């Protein structure tokens, strides 16, 4: 009887196979290969029709990432260098990462090209477009010339470079959009949805993000032993992508002359490289073992861009996060790369403290006697620090004002975000973060006193005209009406026409993957004219520039205000209804702060002009890499001029070139 059933089942299976083949579908994939671990069958071993794959894709966001990774569901494996070729030659344990998993999506095509990235391998110096990696639908993989697999054996081919940099960027984007980070789809700072990536843009010791060309561009140069391709360095790729992310979520930062805003961009690049190194499981385990569980000893984590630094500067890193720089060491410092070391060092201090505090906590051993405890292992500590630091460092970005961020702004945002996600703070992380920022002189004693004052977790704004949160969140036009109805309460001058810079909602998570309440983020801004009066402004004397003002209000789903960070102007309200009391006091404070901002703007512009750090961007004959990259550029005809950060947020600091005061040359000229 059993035999008859088996035969019947076999016949049914055979008929199903015939039906599948007759319908045009390929036969099922072979059984699990012997190399796989027993009892861990992957969904990737089972044939999934194209239509079923698309249906699964529509549900993929609802599935836990651990489940998708374990089952191989809609995840494509790629090979990249763990760090870069230089490190791979020195350490056989740090060669390739063969398990870089990228989420499948329906529109994958040659390049690689996906919904958010397009690899265009154009060499501007040679005027040559390199052959692209080809998407092979049958194998569900990108292949090289003549269908060659793009594995470690193909690492010297440009098609491997193309796929490697694309895979790294896809993973980095997913990292930022995760609920433990920003919890939303990240926009770019330009029209369009694809960031162009140029792996071999030309010859030069650099890599940069450029909003104008909507691109990340990576260069190559000859070292003593080999050609260095910056697109093969995971740190450099992640650093430059950090610029693109920050420019996307705060595009008006580029109109700031404040050195700390440019330095914050560089910090964001270095922070991205550090966090994504921590998230790499293979590297994390190696660091835990080699460092003896001590984060400060994890040189892989604190040293950025080993190959580039070795070739260009003769040292095994470009910049080091493990430093003791303080704000008092940076008086009158205008180099964003050097200045960024303070904030990078501060967040590295926080990372070390998180890991060490976690290791100090005892853990119940369920297999032993109830009272017996055991310490957390280094591997556990590194995992915990990576998980916690993603939330600690990235979620506060949504609280920042829309214009001119300083290190203090970010420090306050980090502390506020910690309060919102963990108000009871049983591990004392809030106080630890305050201490880190105080030690680096980013926060003052007055800041600390305010932060430590007991207060309610959140409150409601004292507004003249109430609007429902649903109305505010419906559109930018609706948000504008809410702001306009409450100009006086929100410290917006009556005569200024402001604009809604951004409006979005986020869904974030905190410890143990628990969801935070939905947040609605509203950004608004306006411009205030500033006269450049005096010879200290050189060729710009007598012209007018603008100072950006505005704020970011974050609501929870009940309409409570979680955060309101603002950059006021120097003008009073100027309305027809003069008020006294609290409103008048708030306006007096705002106008004073705006006047201080205006004076600082004029002073900083004069210093930048005196140091010959403001220029005009001169492009290459082929239109990609500019032969001269000033730290700031001036735009505008006639009376109005606007100053912006360099559109090329680049890897090499301007401190690496000749000093203008010593050579008489522009210190921002570089060699292409």
Lateral strand order in the biggest sheet: 3-8-10-9-24
Low-pLDDT windows of residues: 1-43, 364-372, 620-627, 654-672
**Percent helix:** 25-40%
SS-derived structural category: alpha+beta
Distance between the termini: 80 Å
Instruction: Classify the beta-strand content into a percent band.
Output: 15-25%
- Inertia-based shape: globular
Task: Specify the number of helices.
Answer: 19
Largest sheet: 5 strands, mixed
Mean pLDDT: 83
Q: Which value, in Å, is the CA radius of gyration?
A: 27 Å
Counting DSSP E segments of at least 2 residues, the number of strands comes to 24
Describe this structure in words.
It is a single chain. The chain has 672 residues and is of the alpha+beta class. Among the domains are: 65-232, Roll (Elastase, domain 1); 260-455, no CATH class; 611-663, no CATH class. 37% of the residues lie in helices and 16% in strands. It has a five-stranded mixed beta sheet with strand order 3-8-10-9-24, covered by helices on one side. A hairpin with a 4-residue loop joins strand 4 (122-123) and strand 5 (128-129). The longest helix is centred in the C-terminal third of the chain and has 29 residues, at 582-610. The protein is globular.
What's the SSE blueprint?
Layout: H1 2-22, H2 50-59, H3 65-71, E1 75-81, H4 85-90, E2 96-103, E3 117-119, E4 122-123, E5 128-129, E6 134-136, E7 141-143, H5 158-177, E8 195-198, E9 207-210, E10 215-218, E11 220-222, E12 227-229, H6 234-249, H7 259-279, H8 281-290, H9 299-302, E13 303-304, H10 306-313, E14 319-320, H11 336-360, E15 362-364, E16 373-375, H12 378-394, H13 407-421, H14 429-439, H15 445-452, H16 469-474, H17 476-485, E17 499-506, E18 519-531, E19 544-556, E20 561-567, H18 582-610, E21 614-615, E22 632-635, E23 642-645, E24 648-650, H19 660-663
